[in-house]
């Protein structure tokens, strides 16, 4: 759970920073997308970096889900008789309680997101347009519901990260400074989500076009 | 025995109790509703159950079985899930130290045993916590040469380590952490023991093997996995901090592959 989660978080950091290139203009953004495919050429074949990233991420997602399912199954086995009274959570931790269903929502979002901006299947511009055009068309003011959907999904990602980041440190035995690390996890989650949210929102309100 | 004033000035409370009754491990068990009248706010939760049991005994009925011993909050015997919270909603409090002043006249209180597969119900609210004993037996000890006691200052212990070790050592093994954990994990209990011994010089030689043995025993008993929800430390009568679990994980990971 912790190790695969850490891989996914590292990817999110890179992904968020890459997205921000949209504010440097269409050329910069498109060139970045092109560079991701051609990096290392001609020493390395086309799409070497991207292919490696895709394989690592797919493995990480599958193993992350496998860990989650086995934890949930162990939990169900460890408490065959449920409490009759509604269990009142004592630790606060709204984000903590969203981890399992939130993870499923994030997965559904990722599938939509890949169909949308990677394969262009559900994108108004289709898969052949430049990445910049796809982004701008996707979050156009007339398609506000797409932006809203992305925002809701990103908040779910943020909640997932808020518990996940700290929890990973705890699982790996690094969380001796409880409060500081918990606060740091929250800050990193907020910064990541803010970075991701910036793109669809600025496109929708017409700052990026 | 009505209209009796109490020292806090509150009149006796009339309560409805929904209690899990189960006559032995083989019985299916069910919730049974009881009425208890004129409960003094000065009573502890267990004294309130004593009043019910006295009446049940007089009526020739089977009294409600529950674990208790010192009734001073230090032995770890008592414990029940009260309105969905292990040891009740009062923080850092065992059931015996929970007082009826935290309840109001007319309240309905649901009382259930710890729910976990490794804690089978013996009868009513009594569960078998031998699984904890087996975790301790797996490694919750230090091996020392027997003989006369060494000088107290022979092995210096830094103050911070002594404090943290003592905090962990206050675990009374009541099992509330398991009862409250949505995963039914015993990580806080096991981690408290590992932290207690692992922070002191006497615990160093067996530190890694202790963590490995105790964690493996914990898993073998059928407890769930920790997802760091923090429910355990929130209900812990001794407030064992969640840091303990990080220490346990760190010690355990050092043995990985060994």
TrEMBL record, chain A:
<dbReference type="Pfam" id="PF01127">
    <property type="entry name" value="Sdh_cyt"/>
</dbReference>
<dbReference type="InterPro" id="IPR000701">
    <property type="entry name" value="SuccDH_FuR_B_TM-su"/>
</dbReference>
<keyword id="KW-0472">Membrane</keyword>
<dbReference type="InterPro" id="IPR034804">
    <property type="entry name" value="SQR/QFR_C/D"/>
</dbReference>
<feature type="transmembrane region" description="Helical">
    <location>
        <begin position="49"/>
        <end position="72"/>
    </location>
</feature>
<protein>
    <submittedName>
        <fullName>Succinate dehydrogenase</fullName>
    </submittedName>
</protein>
<dbReference type="GO" id="GO:0046872">
    <property type="term" value="F:metal ion binding"/>
</dbReference>
<feature type="transmembrane region" description="Helical">
    <location>
        <begin position="183"/>
        <end position="208"/>
    </location>
</feature>
<dbReference type="InterPro" id="IPR011138">
    <property type="entry name" value="Cytochrome_b-558"/>
</dbReference>
<keyword id="KW-1133">Transmembrane helix</keyword>
<keyword id="KW-0479">Metal-binding</keyword>
<feature type="transmembrane region" description="Helical">
    <location>
        <begin position="142"/>
        <end position="162"/>
    </location>
</feature>
<keyword id="KW-0349">Heme</keyword>
<keyword id="KW-0812">Transmembrane</keyword>
<keyword id="KW-0408">Iron</keyword>
<dbReference type="GO" id="GO:0016020">
    <property type="term" value="C:membrane"/>
</dbReference>
<feature type="transmembrane region" description="Helical">
    <location>
        <begin position="101"/>
        <end position="122"/>
    </location>
</feature>
Automatic annotation (TrEMBL), chain B:
<dbReference type="GO" id="GO:0009055">
    <property type="term" value="F:electron transfer activity"/>
</dbReference>
<dbReference type="InterPro" id="IPR050573">
    <property type="entry name" value="SDH/FRD_Iron-Sulfur"/>
</dbReference>
<comment type="similarity">
    <text>Belongs to the succinate dehydrogenase/fumarate reductase iron-sulfur protein family.</text>
</comment>
<dbReference type="GO" id="GO:0046872">
    <property type="term" value="F:metal ion binding"/>
</dbReference>
<dbReference type="Pfam" id="PF13085">
    <property type="entry name" value="Fer2_3"/>
</dbReference>
<feature type="domain" description="2Fe-2S ferredoxin-type">
    <location>
        <begin position="30"/>
        <end position="115"/>
    </location>
</feature>
<feature type="domain" description="4Fe-4S ferredoxin-type">
    <location>
        <begin position="162"/>
        <end position="191"/>
    </location>
</feature>
<keyword id="KW-0411">Iron-sulfur</keyword>
<protein>
    <submittedName>
        <fullName>Succinate dehydrogenase</fullName>
    </submittedName>
</protein>
<dbReference type="InterPro" id="IPR009051">
    <property type="entry name" value="Helical_ferredxn"/>
</dbReference>
<dbReference type="InterPro" id="IPR006058">
    <property type="entry name" value="2Fe2S_fd_BS"/>
</dbReference>
<dbReference type="GO" id="GO:0022904">
    <property type="term" value="P:respiratory electron transport chain"/>
</dbReference>
<dbReference type="InterPro" id="IPR012675">
    <property type="entry name" value="Beta-grasp_dom_sf"/>
</dbReference>
<dbReference type="InterPro" id="IPR017896">
    <property type="entry name" value="4Fe4S_Fe-S-bd"/>
</dbReference>
<dbReference type="InterPro" id="IPR001041">
    <property type="entry name" value="2Fe-2S_ferredoxin-type"/>
</dbReference>
<dbReference type="InterPro" id="IPR017900">
    <property type="entry name" value="4Fe4S_Fe_S_CS"/>
</dbReference>
<dbReference type="Pfam" id="PF13183">
    <property type="entry name" value="Fer4_8"/>
</dbReference>
<dbReference type="GO" id="GO:0009060">
    <property type="term" value="P:aerobic respiration"/>
</dbReference>
<dbReference type="InterPro" id="IPR025192">
    <property type="entry name" value="Succ_DH/fum_Rdtase_N"/>
</dbReference>
<keyword id="KW-0479">Metal-binding</keyword>
<keyword id="KW-0408">Iron</keyword>
<dbReference type="InterPro" id="IPR036010">
    <property type="entry name" value="2Fe-2S_ferredoxin-like_sf"/>
</dbReference>
């Amino acid at each position: 759970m912790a190790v695969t989660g850490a891989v996914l978080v590292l990817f999110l950091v890179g992904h968020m920073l890459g997205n921000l290139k949209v504010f440097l203009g269409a050329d910069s953004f498109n060139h970045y997308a092109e560079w991701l495919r051609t990096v290392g050429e001609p020493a390395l074949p086309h799409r070497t970096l991207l292919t490696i990233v895709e394989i690592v991420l797919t493995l990480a997602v599958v193993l992350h889900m496998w860990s989650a399912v086995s934890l949930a199954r162990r939990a169900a086995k460890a408490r065959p008789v449920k409490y009759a009274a509604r269990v009142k959570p004592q630790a606060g931790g709204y984000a903590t309680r969203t981890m399992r269903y939130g993870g499923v929502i994030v997965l559904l979002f990722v599938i939509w997101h890949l169909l949308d901006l990677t394969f262009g299947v559900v994108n108004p511009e289709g898969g052949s347009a430049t990445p910049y055009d796809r982004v701008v068309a996707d979050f156009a003011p007339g398609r506000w519901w797409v932006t809203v959907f992305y925002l809701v999904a990103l908040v779910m990602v943020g909640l997932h990260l808020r518990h996940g980041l700290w929890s990973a440190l705890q699982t790996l035995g690094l969380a001796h400074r409880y409060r500081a690390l918990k606060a740091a996890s929250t800050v990193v989650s907020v910064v990541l989500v803010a970075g991701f949210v910036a793109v669809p929102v600025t496109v929708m309100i017409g700052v990026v076009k | 025995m009505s209209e009796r004033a109490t020292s806090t000035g509150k009149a006796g409370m009339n309560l409805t109790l929904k209690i899990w009754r189960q006559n032995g491990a083989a019985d299916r068990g069910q919730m049974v509703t009881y009425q208890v009248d004129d409960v003094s706010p000065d009573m502890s939760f267990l004294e309130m159950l004593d009043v019910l049991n006295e009446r049940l005994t007089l009526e020739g009925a089977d009294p409600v079985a529950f674990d208790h011993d010192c009734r001073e909050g230090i032995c770890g015997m008592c414990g029940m899930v009260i309105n969905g919270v292990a040891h009740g909603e009062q923080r850092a409090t065992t059931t015996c130290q929970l007082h009826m002043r935290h309840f109001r006249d007319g309240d309905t209180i649901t009382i259930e045993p710890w729910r976990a597969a490794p804690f089978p119900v013996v009868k009513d609210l009594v569960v078998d916590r031998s699984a904890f004993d087996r975790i301790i037996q797996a490694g919750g000890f230090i091996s020392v040469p027997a003989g006369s006691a060494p000088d107290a200052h022979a092995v210096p212990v830094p103050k911070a380590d002594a404090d943290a070790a003592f905090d962990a050592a206050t675990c009374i093994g009541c099992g509330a952490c398991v009862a409250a954990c949505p995963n039914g994990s015993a990580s806080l209990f096991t981690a408290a023991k590992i932290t207690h011994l692992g922070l002191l010089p006497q615990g160093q030689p067996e530190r890694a093997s202790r963590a490995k043995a105790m964690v493996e025993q914990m898993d073998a008993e059928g407890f769930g996995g920790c997802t760091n929800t923090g429910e355990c430390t929130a209900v812990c009568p001794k407030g064992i901090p969640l840091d303990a679990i990080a220490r346990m994980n760190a010690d355990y990971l050092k043995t990985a592959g060994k």
